[in-house]
Amino acid sequence: RNHPHDTLEEQIEQRAVVDLSNDALDYAFANGVTLIAAEGNEHTDLGSPTFDVLSPDFPPGSERVREIDNSCLVIPTEGNHVMSVSALGSTGRKAYYSNYGLEQTVVSAPGGDRREFFGTPQWNTAGLRILSTYPAELAMEEKLITRHFKPRTSLAVVDCGEGKPSTSTCGVYVYLQGTSMASPHATGVAALIIGGIGSGTGAEFGADPADVETALRDTATDT
User: What is the pLDDT of residue 200?
Assistant: First the structure.
């Protein structure tokens, strides 16, 4: 909010990110929304951070390396009422890139870790990642698939069904890693919890977010 090396304009911009995001999170929580976020991929202890490379956030390109302390928040994962999810590799260990923190992390979930099994044929293979949907145009731009929807790498999967290959007929998937792969796993479990303990009908069906968090924590394995 007031980093001594930031300009007044940068401080105002970052205060706005924190305050307006928390306003939105407070509103959602008060209206029964369960909030889950990826913890981030900087291999940082969010409870005791030492440097930041992600902000100031605006304008694009203004971010730089800064020494920080725990008053610097990663938004939305450290926002109000948010359950923060860190990533695990296939062996169950923390993924090498995943942020962590005793006061931040609610649960961990599979996020992939390409560095596991170093020195074996499994190392750096697709099987150590998580298969995710991916924009076709971006996959072409990054040379993961051809313009004719043919995979260029074992990390890409294309399914065009019976139709002629096009952006409207083909599904593009890529094996990825990150806390953004882990948080959807926790979100899916939270959805099942809501389905099990929720009440109401139609658009009013739901469950108290605090009860969902309690259940989510209780279903997790202590490690």
Answer: 95
